[in-house]
Each structure stands twice: as C-alpha cells, then as structure tokens.
Amino acid sequence: MAALREDEALHYGIQAGDKVEIVFSKSKRLICDIEFSSTLKPGYLGLYKEITDKFDVESEDIIELSLISRPLSIEAIKRKMRGEDLNYEDIHSIMTDIVQGRLGEVELTYFAMSSFVRPYSEDELYYLTKAMAETGEMINLPEKVVDKHCIGGLAGNRTTMVVIPIVASLGLIIPKTSSRAITSPSGTADTMEVLAPVSFSMEEIKKIVRKTNGCMVWGGGLNLAPADDKIIRVSRPLAMEPYDKMIVSIMAKKVAMGVDHLIIDIPTGPSAKVSNVKVAKLIGDKFKRLGARFGIKVGINISPADQPVGNGIGPALEARDVLRVLQQHHYRPMDLENKAIHLAGELLELKGFCRKGQGKKIAYEQIKSGKAWEKMNDIIVAQGGKSDLSSEEIIKKVLKYQVLAAQSGEITYVDNKAINAVCMNLGAPKDKQAGMHMHCRYGQKIKKGEKLFTLYASNSTRLGLGIASINHNQLVYFGQKGLDRAESRNHTPGILLGKR
C-alpha cells in the first residue's frame, strides 16, 4: 500500500484502490495499491517503513509515479468464472500479472476459486502448469531427478522426510521443495524447519544437492513457480484447495525442478482431503496424463487415511517422529516407517533402479543399516542445522493437557479434519512446538479414563483455545456411531468432475 492526498490523487485521475507503479531508480520499481490520506503534505507519497527500508528510500527522495491500467488478465478471470475455457495466452497473462503484483487479493481470490465453478480442461491444466513454471526460476540441474510428493491434508504423514534420505543414500538425486501447510497443522517445510533452515536461493540449493544428493527446502523462499505461493496465500484462510489447482501447484514445481520420475501419494478416507477411491483414481489419472505431457513418469499410490500417520501432529512433534524412525528409536511410529519404506521402494522401481518387487527390501535395508539416518544428518548439516541431533531433544518446554476417554469401546472413526482444527487452535503450524501426540489408534479398544491425546502449546492462551476446540470437534468416535459418521462423510465432493 501507498498513500496520497485525496485531492492530489483525484487531480491525476487516481482512485482509492487503483494500482500504481512507483519508480525509485532505474533498477528499483514497485507496484502497489493506493489509499487516501488526509495528513500528508502536498507533493508527498506515504510509504510503509518496510518498503522504504527495502528500497533504501529517504524522506526527501524524488520518485516517479504512474497509474497502471486495469490488467487484461481480469477479463480472462471473468471468462473462467463464467465457465469458459482459457487459452495459453490468457493463462500466461494471469500468471505474469500475479508474479508482477498487478492483481490484488480480491482478483487473486476469484481466480483461485474459479475452478470450483468448472474444472479445468486437460489443455488448461497443461497451460497453467507450463505458465506457472515458466514465470519463475528453473533449477536446470545437469542430472535428471526423482521426487515423491503427498497431496497433503492428512495430519502427520511425514513420509517425505524419511523417503528423501533413503533415496539420496542410494545415490539418486532428489531435491525436495515444499509449500507451507494449507489444510493441515504442518507441511514438510514447516517440519524440516524444526531441524534446519529451509529458505535458500537456487544457487545455494544446487550446492546442497551436489554435496548430499538431496534437500528439503521451502519452495516459497525461491522464485520457483512464484504465482503458486501467492495463490496459496489467499486459499489458506478458508483451508480450501480445488483439486485441479492442487494438481497444477504440485506439477509446476516438479517441472521447474527438472523431475523425470515422480511418486504421488494420495491419502484417501472420509475425513481426508480426498474422501474416496473413485475421486483418488480420477486425480491420479490427471497427474499421469499431465506428467506425460512434460516427459515426467508418474506413479500413483492411493493410501488409506483412516487416521493420521505417525503419533505426532504439529511441526516439532512430527520432526520427532521422523528422527525416531531414522534413528530406529524404540518408540518410533511403525505406520510412518512402513509407509515411507513402501513409497521409497515404489520410487526406486519406477525409476528402474531395481527390479519390480525389490524396492521395498532395498529401502528397508537403508533404514535398518543406519545409512538413511547418516544421509539425513548430512542434509540437516548442509542446510545449517545441528549435527547428530537426537529425536528426544526436539520438544522444548511447553504446556501439556491430556485428553482422556469419556467412555469405553472400540474406536471406529478418527476425524482427521477435527484433529487438524484442534492443532491449528493450539497454534500449529506457525508455533513449531504446538500440536498433539496421539495415544490411540483406529480399531483400538479403549477403556474409560485411558489417554487419547496429549495437547501441546507454548502458552496458556493457546492451550485454552485448543481445549475449547475439543468441545466443538469430536476427534474419535466409538462403535456404531463411528461407523455411521464415516459413512456420512464418505461422499464425492463436486470439486472434480472427471476428465474434460
């Protein structure tokens, strides 16, 4: 935002909310929205301190200001909202205007939600992915790389942080860029940040990868598909992400990173992002067809999502689970270990590293022998983290609250979305220490008074919010009530209508 006196702005035909370009020097330009101010002196422009600091502007500096015409991409967004298909020029103009800051948050939000009106066609998905990748940086490594990606939405499930060191320890190149969490209490970038920094330039990433064969970094810290991170920002408040948008978001970054073999994990269950296998297969087919147009061989793993994967939910608690698996700790979550080994094996076989049926055995040996942990330690250190970090020093001093079972019975439904809601109220993912540890599992028989969950929060206010959230969100159900709940949630949402 920048501020002008109302009388001066109107004299030049500038209305409140209009976009202007501010030129500080030949190399320093800024596009921002205008708001009116009654306190500015005539001839002055008001700027926030972070802008003046960033552009090294003094209070008496002379700047050039010009009104920016309404972006043509707005017309393309309007056509998409009416259900029309867009061509490559339309979509490229939208991506360019997003990257250059020519679209405000209102226009951006309309575009982010436009695929709820009508799913993208196969050509539109290709155009979106191509334009999103090409309007940012491309890694351009000399070697082809492999990758594994989960579509998210399932609490815990930090398999990526186990798969990366397994695969990298075998000599394959696997640079991982991840987004922040959108619909869950933590993403890979949020969790890895507990162990090491995740924000690097492209050149720094290349150095880390050359040294270790892999990395786990935040894609938003790069100019990697930069339009995507702006779209994610407007999607996060409602915790909504259309399936087509999700597919494009994932594939654009894979194209930019030069991936040629990719495993996509699609957790599927009544309270997951994808509710049933039918929808999961439709999404998987779209991933495969889109990948083929970019020369990427895609394998799909549709996994059951009856409950969170691992015991910890929230950045630090999930990081502890990851290290417990890699360090073969006695209390490691075996569901996380087994799923990660399976996915790593699938990726090795997809790449042609080994024969069909041999991947899982090879992946297991890398964990059992300690080679995967050695590689993870190398990656942590290369990214600026502490060497030989113990899983048991991850959790800092926090407040805790135990949730006990109010009745006895068998757990027949675990509400992943309710768990996410409670953890977000506790402060995750922004507060790295916030979240919960699960003591119960789907199908387990519980006695009244036994521990179900332990809540973690950094302060009493957040802990109080988490406790209050439990009163509005039932996390586990028993007996027939749970079966009925699962059935009622197992429906096909109208976000993806199939192939067009």
Task: Provide an overview of this structure.
- The chain has 500 residues and is of the alpha/beta class.
- It folds into four domains: 66 residues, Barwin-like endoglucanases; 46 residues, no CATH class; 248 residues, Nucleoside phosphorylase/phosphoribosyltransferase catalytic domain (Pyrimidine Nucleoside Phosphorylase, Chain A, domain 2, 3-Layer(aba) Sandwich), CATH 3.40.1030; 92 residues, Pyrimidine nucleoside phosphorylase-like, C-terminal domain (Aldehyde Oxidoreductase, domain 3).
- The protein is 43% helix and 18% strand.
- It is built from 19 helices and 17 strands.
- The strands form five sheets. It has a five-stranded mixed sheet. The chain has a four-stranded antiparallel sheet with strand order 11-14-16-12. The protein has a three-stranded parallel sheet with strand order 6-9-10, with helices on both faces.
- Strand 2 and strand 3 form a beta hairpin.
- Helix 3 crosses helix 4 and helix 4 runs parallel beside helix 6.
- It is globular and about 75 Å long.
- The C terminus is likely disordered.
